Amino acid sequence: MSAGGGTKAIIAALGANLAIAVAKFVAFLFTGSSSMLAESVHSVADSGNQALLIVGGKRAERRSTRKHPFGYGRERYFYAFVVAVVLFTIGALFSLYEGWHKIADPHPVESPVWAFGVLVFAIVAEGFSFRTAIRESRALKGDHSWVSFIRRAKAPELPVVLLEDFGALLGLIFALFGVSMSVVTGDGIWDGIGTMMIGALLAVIAVILATETKSLLIGESAAPEIEEQICAALESAPEVSRVIHLRTLHLGPEELLVAAKIAVQHDDTAGEVARGIDEAERRVREAVPIARVIYLEPDLYRADASAESRTGA
């Protein structure tokens, strides 16, 4: 997996979640708190998710084959989508069920000191993981907002880890709220309410992740500014008078397919056109290194074809 995939953030999140899962489960055994059980399952699911992201990154590095001539780069999108499914089915549904069960049959939290101690430890550990994910993401985020970064990112790992860590911190706050209210009031229903809040939070995050990764799985074009760079590079070649239209598709986070119809002079020889295409491809790869698969079709520009967008919008 490339550095852009946020390997450091994934490893940090995996280590934190494994340690936190063990601590939360021990606290559940001592307290009987449904919030602690829900958070234990949440951390186990997150650990599995980080493992899935690592597996996806490794499988995406395989060489192209006759059956898959464009390689396996989009496996990273598939495994990110599986993460969303796991987060919903294991994390959200289990938490919602456990919360409903606790509300229907409430009982007080035992040995709350264990719960408070583990929750504070978990908040510190998740905060470290979240800070690592933010630091890894800043270079890719640029001037965009965090919401825009999550929506525009072509590498799915960092948005997944960011949302998971953010959800984990909120979930810990919800668990702390549920346990605290149960201890203060002596009513175990609050513990169930905190658990239901965790389940609802995980469901929302899972839906967001599934929506974004589904779009990547279907196939997304390059960002508008990248397409403008490609057009500029093509039109800078001497033999290319203009780009008639352009199509781009991400074969993976760091691999872009470029297909364009370019206008050439009507009196150019076949050799001149071939040299012009080679030069245009070289300039595109120089301007946009991730443009690794390029198909250019020479044509004569016609004014009546101007209705066809350069970028296919």
From TrEMBL:
<dbReference type="Pfam" id="PF16916">
    <property type="entry name" value="ZT_dimer"/>
</dbReference>
<dbReference type="GO" id="GO:0008324">
    <property type="term" value="F:monoatomic cation transmembrane transporter activity"/>
</dbReference>
<feature type="transmembrane region" description="Helical">
    <location>
        <begin position="77"/>
        <end position="97"/>
    </location>
</feature>
<feature type="transmembrane region" description="Helical">
    <location>
        <begin position="113"/>
        <end position="134"/>
    </location>
</feature>
<feature type="transmembrane region" description="Helical">
    <location>
        <begin position="189"/>
        <end position="210"/>
    </location>
</feature>
<keyword id="KW-0472">Membrane</keyword>
<dbReference type="Pfam" id="PF01545">
    <property type="entry name" value="Cation_efflux"/>
</dbReference>
<feature type="domain" description="Cation efflux protein transmembrane">
    <location>
        <begin position="10"/>
        <end position="217"/>
    </location>
</feature>
<feature type="transmembrane region" description="Helical">
    <location>
        <begin position="155"/>
        <end position="177"/>
    </location>
</feature>
<keyword id="KW-0813">Transport</keyword>
<dbReference type="GO" id="GO:0006829">
    <property type="term" value="P:zinc ion transport"/>
</dbReference>
<dbReference type="InterPro" id="IPR027469">
    <property type="entry name" value="Cation_efflux_TMD_sf"/>
</dbReference>
<dbReference type="InterPro" id="IPR040177">
    <property type="entry name" value="SLC30A9"/>
</dbReference>
<keyword id="KW-0812">Transmembrane</keyword>
<protein>
    <submittedName>
        <fullName>Cation transporter</fullName>
    </submittedName>
</protein>
<keyword id="KW-1133">Transmembrane helix</keyword>
<feature type="domain" description="Cation efflux protein cytoplasmic">
    <location>
        <begin position="224"/>
        <end position="294"/>
    </location>
</feature>
<dbReference type="InterPro" id="IPR027470">
    <property type="entry name" value="Cation_efflux_CTD"/>
</dbReference>
<dbReference type="InterPro" id="IPR058533">
    <property type="entry name" value="Cation_efflux_TM"/>
</dbReference>
<dbReference type="InterPro" id="IPR036837">
    <property type="entry name" value="Cation_efflux_CTD_sf"/>
</dbReference>
<feature type="transmembrane region" description="Helical">
    <location>
        <begin position="9"/>
        <end position="30"/>
    </location>
</feature>
<dbReference type="GO" id="GO:0016020">
    <property type="term" value="C:membrane"/>
</dbReference>
<dbReference type="InterPro" id="IPR002524">
    <property type="entry name" value="Cation_efflux"/>
</dbReference>
